[in-house]
Amino acid sequence: MVTNNFNRIARHLMMTHWHVHRAFPREALDAIEEAIKQSEATHDGEICFALEGALHSAALLKGQSARARAIEVFSQLHVWDTEQNNGVLIYLLLADQDVEIVADRGLHARVGSSDWEVICREMEARFRRREYQEGVIAGIQAVAQQMRQHFPARDHWGNELVDKAVVL
Questions:
Q1: 64 bridge partner residues
Q2: Where is the TPM domain (predicted)?
């Protein structure tokens, strides 16, 4: 347990902006933005992708999980603030290669945690192969499939959340 904590702390402390930009160059971020735009044309939900290289030292020393951080980011980016309560955050903590999906109550009531978990684990498998752009786009497509099922394109409220990938 102590070794795992030490290894995690070391990964986070060694994660630099260079590592983040190497995994997600400008072209990849642009492709992710385009994937979100295209998916949102097919459903009435809102998808937000946020990428964070590493946790700040205080959060790291407290042992903050990627899930807890994803919930904070969900709130900070106002993903919960959509007309139909159907915003979804796909959050990647790169140092841990941990993906978390946080869905607003309107969608979470219709899609179970196990469905989101499957999408997260599939994305993480792609990341282990260093297929970062492909993994995120596949995740967006999988989330969009759930959105189409539960919030098909009908009365689109306009773009309520930024489509651009958020790098924290």
A1: none
A2: 27-145
> Domains of the chain (ranges plus CATH)?
2-167 (3.10.310.50)
Nearest to 167 by CA among 25, 64, 14, 47: 25
**What is the spatial distance between Cα 62 and Cα 46, in angstroms, rounded to a whole number?**
32
Which tokens in the block code for residue 18?
Answer: 């260079």
Sign of CA dihedral 74, 100, 52, 58: positive
Say if residues 150 and 49 touch (Cβ distance below 8 Å): no
Task: Give the pLDDT confidence of 6-62 residue by residue, as tens digits.
Answer: 888 889 989 999 999 999 999 999 999 999 999 988 888 889 999 999 999 888 889
Write the Ramachandran bin of 32: left for phi over 0, alpha for psi from -120 to 50, otherwise beta.
Answer: alpha
Residue 66, φ and ψ in degrees, nearest 5: -60, -35
